[in-house]
């Protein structure tokens, strides 16, 4: 693998993280963020946020495309994660699950996604 991947080479969220994507979309939908819920599965997986080693945010847009808005992901008033949104607030740009186990998602979900997104290259 050399150089930059054009976005079309990156896996869609629904392909690389079907369970996680479905769960986050369900939370967004339930919270009234229907546009964000419907856009997320078609977005690309850009890997781990590189801001610091071991950052727990998954990028769903190129780094630096976040606006100032954040969406707190909640189930029954309990915070299970958070997401940044684009300046037009139409798409999630990165997402972190602080309590993935509440969703039945393993805590290693991001590591697993990165491993499976790079093994074909
Ligand atoms: Zn980060």
Task: Give an overview in words.
The protein is of the alpha+beta class and 121 residues long. The protein has one domain. 27% of the residues lie in helices and 18% in strands. It has a four-stranded antiparallel sheet, with helices on one face. The longest helix has 13 residues, at 18-30. It starts with 12 loop residues before the first helix and ends with a helix.
The DSSP helix count reads 4
Q: What are the segments in which pLDDT stays under 50 over at least 5 consecutive residues?
A: none
Bound molecules: zinc ion
Mean pLDDT across every amino acid position? 92
Structural class: alpha+beta
Percent strand: 15-25%
Largest sheet entry? 4 strands, antiparallel
Shape: globular
- Biggest sheet, spatial arrangement of strands: 1-4-3-2
What's this model, at a glance?
The chain has one domain.
Secondary-structure topology with pairs:
Layout: H1 13-16, H2 18-30, H3 34-39, E1 58-59, E2 70-75, E3 78-85, E4 92-97, H4 109-118
Antiparallel strand pairs: 1-4, 2-3, 3-4
Which terms would index this structure?
121 residues, 4-stranded antiparallel beta sheet, 4 helices, binds zinc ion
């Amino acid at each position: 693998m050399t150089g930059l991947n054009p976005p079309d080479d990156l896996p869609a969220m629904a392909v690389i993280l079907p369970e996680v994507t479905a769960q986050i979309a369900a939370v967004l939908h339930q919270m009234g963020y229907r546009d964000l819920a419907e856009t997320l599965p078609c977005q690309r997986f850009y890997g781990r946020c590189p801001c610091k080693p071991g950052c727990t945010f998954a990028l769903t847009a190129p780094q630096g495309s976040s606006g100032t808005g954040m969406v707190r992901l909640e189930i029954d008033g309990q915070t299970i994660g958070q997401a940044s949104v684009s300046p037009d607030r139409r798409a999630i740009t990165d997402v972190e699950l602080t309590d993935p186990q509440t969703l039945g998602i393993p805590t290693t979900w991001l590591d697993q996604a990165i491993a499976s997104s790079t093994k074909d290259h």
